[in-house]
C-alpha cells in the first residue's frame, strides 16, 4: 500500500506537539477571516471508544481487521477494468489515476455480463476451472513457502467462436481482476515488453490473444517469416518464470490460440502455462446452457433430441448456435432455425467428402484409360510386325 506523504509529514510534526499521555486530540483547519462567511466545512468522523488496556488489541488487530473487510467490500463492488495500450488514457468513471498512472495503458469499464453459469461449456470443465481459480487466490503463503511467484498460466485453445474471450471475461468477473489486453505485435523489443508488463497491477489478468500470430512465439522447428521486431521468445519466458516473474503478485497470464501445434513447446510447459483448456465445438450440454440463456427453456419434446442428435454428426460452434437462437423470440421457431443450420452443415460435410473422393476416382479412371491405350498400341505394333514378317516369307 502506498503511504500518504501528507500523513507522514503530519505524523512527524504532531509527535513534537503531542504529549505521550494524550488520549484525544482534534485537528482543525484554520479559515481566513475573509472566507469564513462562505466556508462551510463538512464535519464527518467516527469515534472509537475502548479501555486503555485494549489499546494494543485495537491498533494491531481490530483496525487491520476493519481495513481488510473494507478492502473486501470495495473489491466486491468495484468495476472490473479492461486495459489496452491502444488508447493510453482512461474512460473509466471510477479510475482515480487516469489509467494506471504509467501512461502506458488506458482503460474502460468491462461491462461484460457473462458468468460461469452462462458459459456453454461442459459442467465438469467449468467446475475444474473455478476450483483452480479459488485454489490460486487463497494460496499466497503457499507460493511464498515453496519459492514460486504468485501467478498462474492458462492456455485456451480451439477453433474460432468456441468462447475463449467469454471465458476470460467470466474469470475476470468471478475474481474481480482487471484485464490487460496485450498485443505482442505492437511491441518492438524485449525492453518494451518488460516496461509494459511491469506497468500492470497486482490482482490482474494479462491476456495475449492469438499468440500463434506472433512470429517469435512460434515453434522454433518451423522456419519463421522475416520480421523487423527484436522481441524474442526468451524475453517473454524471462517475465513468465525468470527473475522478472517475481515483480508482482496474484497475476494470471492467459494465452489464446486457434492452433496450439504452432506454438513453441517452451511456452506451454507447466510453470508457464499451468492449465491447458480445450475450447471445443458445442456439445449437447453446452446447447442446454445456450437454450436456457437465450430462450429460457430447458427442454422441447421433439426439437431438443433432433438438435442433440445432429450435433453428434456435425461440428458447430457455440457462437453459431447463439446467433440462430437470437433470430426469433418464439422458442420453437428459433429451435427450428438451429435444426436447419445443423442439417445444412451436415449436407455440406457430406458433399465435401464426396468432392474429396472424386479427384481420386478421376485420377484412377485417367490412369486406366492410359494403360488401355498402351495395351492397344502394343497389340497393334505386334500385329504390324507379324504382317510384315508374313510378307517377307511370301
UniProtKB/TrEMBL annotation:
Pfam family, one: AAA
Region Disordered: start-end pairs: 348-374
Annotated GO MF terms: ATP binding; hydrolase activity
InterPro entries: AAA+_ATPase, At3g28540-like_C, ATPase_AAA_core, ATPase_AAA_CS, Mitochondrial_chaperone_BCS1, P-loop_NTPase
UniProtKB keywords: ATP-binding, Hydrolase, Nucleotide-binding
Domain AAA+ ATPase residue range list: 150-283
UniProt similarity note: Belongs to the AAA ATPase family. BCS1 subfamily.
Polar residues compositional bias, start-end: 358-367
Protein name, entry field: P-loop containing nucleoside triphosphate hydrolase superfamily protein
Species whose genome carries this gene: Abeliophyllum distichum
Domain of life of the native organism: Eukaryota
Amino acid at each position: 500500500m502506498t503511504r500518504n506523504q501528507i500523513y507522514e509529514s503530519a505524523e512527524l510534526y504532531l509527535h513534537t506537539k503531542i504529549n505521550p499521555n494524550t488520549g484525544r486530540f482534534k485537528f482543525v483547519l484554520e479559515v481566513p477571516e475573509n472566507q469564513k462567511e462562505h466556508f462551510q466545512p463538512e464535519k464527518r468522523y467516527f469515534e472509537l471508544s475502548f479501555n486503555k488496556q485494549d489499546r494494543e488489541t485495537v491498533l494491531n488487530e481490530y483496525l487491520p481487521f476493519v481495513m481488510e473487510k473494507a478492502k473486501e467490500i470495495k473489491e466486491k463492488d468495484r468495476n472490473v477494468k479492461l486495459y489496452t495500450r491502444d488508447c493510453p488514457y482512461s474512460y473509466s468513471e471510477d479510475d482515480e489515476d487516469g489509467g494506471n498512472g504509467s501512461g502506458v495503458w488506458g482503460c474502460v469499464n468491462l461491462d461484460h455480463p457473462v458468468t460461469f453459469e452462462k458459459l456453454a461449456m461442459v459442467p465438469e470443465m467449468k467446475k475444474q476451472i473455478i476450483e483452480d481459480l479459488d485454489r490460486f487466490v487463497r494460496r499466497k503463503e503457499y507460493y511464498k513457502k515453496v519459492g514460486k511467484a504468485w501467478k498462474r498460466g492458462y492456455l485456451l485453445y480451439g477453433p474460432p467462436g468456441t468462447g475463449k474471450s467469454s471465458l476470460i471475461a467470466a474469470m475476470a468477473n468471478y475474481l474481480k481482476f482487471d484485464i490487460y489486453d496485450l498485443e505482442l505485435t505492437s511491441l518492438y523489443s524485449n525492453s518494451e515488453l518488460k516496461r509494459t508488463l511491469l506497468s500492470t497491477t497486482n490482482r490482474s489478468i494479462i491476456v495475449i490473444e492469438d499468440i500463434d500470430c506472433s512470429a517469435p512465439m512460434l515453434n522454433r522447428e518451423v522456419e519463421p517469416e522475416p520480421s523487423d521486431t527484436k522481441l524474442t521468445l526468451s524475453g517473454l519466458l524471462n517475465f513468465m518464470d525468470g527473475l522478472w516473474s517475481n515483480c508482482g503478485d496474484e497475476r494470471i497470464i492467459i494465452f489464446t490460440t486457434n492452433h496450439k501445434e504452432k506454438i513453441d513447446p517452451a511456452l506451454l510447459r507447466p510453470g508457464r502455462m499451468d492449465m491447458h483448456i480445450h475450447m471445443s465445438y458445442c456439445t449437447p450440454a453446452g446447447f442446454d446452457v445456450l437454450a436456457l440463456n437465450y430462450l429460457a427453456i430447458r427442454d422441447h419434446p421433439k426439437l431438443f433430441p433432433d438438435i442433440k442428435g445432429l450435433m453428434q454428426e456435425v461440428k458447430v460452434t457455440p457462437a453459431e448456435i447463439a446467433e440462430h437462437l437470437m433470430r426469433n423470440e418464439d422458442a420453437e421457431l428459433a429451435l427450428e432455425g438451429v435444426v436447419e443450420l445443423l442439417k445444412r452443415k451436415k449436407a455440406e460435410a457430406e458433399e465435401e467428402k464426396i468432392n474429396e473422393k472424386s479427384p481420386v476416382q478421376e485420377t484412377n479412371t485417367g490412369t486406366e484409360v492410359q494403360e488401355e491405350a498402351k495395351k492397344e498400341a502394343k497389340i497393334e505394333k505386334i500385329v504390324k510386325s507379324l504382317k510384315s514378317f508374313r510378307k517377307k516369307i511370301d
